[in-house]
Amino acid sequence: MSCYLINHEEYADLANYLVTEPHLTYTDGFDKIVSINGKEYCVNSAAYGPKHNGHLFSWNLALELAVQNIRSCEARYPDAGPAGGFLAVSVDDWLTTVEETTKKKEGKKTTYYPQDLKHFAEMIDSMEYQSCETDDYYNTHAYWLLAQARRILLKDALKALD
């Protein structure tokens, strides 16, 4: 298989979709399963108001997916350098770009149409394919995050048919 580094905008778009109001009850478990380098990321409940407590910021989700994509590229191309040789900047700088891009987009789009759902389905497939090169992929938080994203997407697609 081949592997490449996914554009930071894709992570931002998917992560922000996952934390929109209709999905908050489905993303409750993300704070228990998403971690980066062993550290869990939870949000201040004030970010979503008093009725939503303990949810992740979208950038936490984006970073979790991006980190696994980097690990996958490095596993596939171990002698090519950081992120499998796909970065012209450091991994830390690129992850900062992912975080900043996601934060800029957070809360900007709250209505999603069927064509958006189709694009998210394609993004999830791509992210899974580009992140599966590590031996432990099916035990990673990113794998479970994408599995939950598929469930959320399916619920939205079925609702769009009504």
Gross morphology is globular
Q: What is the number of helices? A: 6
Radius of gyration: 15 Å
Structural domain count: 1
Beta content: under 5%
- The span between the termini is 39 Å
Structural class: mainly alpha
Average pLDDT value? 80
Total beta strands: 2
> Largest sheet at a glance?
2 strands, antiparallel
Strand order of the largest sheet: 1-2
> Which stretches are poorly predicted, pLDDT < 50 over at least 5 residues?
31-37, 39-55
Helical amount among residues, as a percent range? 40-55%
| H/E series | HHEEHHHH
Tell me briefly what this model is.
With 162 residues, the protein is mostly helical. It has 6 helices and 2 strands.
Topology of this structure?
Layout: H1 8-18, H2 30-33, E1 35-36, E2 39-40, H3 58-76, H4 91-105, H5 114-131, H6 141-161
Antiparallel strand pairs: 1-2
Helix pairs in contact: 1-3, 1-4, 3-4, 3-6, 5-6
Features of the shown structure:
single chain; 162 residues; mainly alpha; 6 helices
Q: What do you see in this structure?
A:
- With 162 residues, the protein is mostly helical.
- The protein has one domain.
- It has helices at residues 8-18, 30-33, 58-76, 91-105, 114-131, 141-161; strands at residues 35-36, 39-40.
- It has a two-stranded antiparallel ribbon with strand order 1-2.
- The chain is globular.
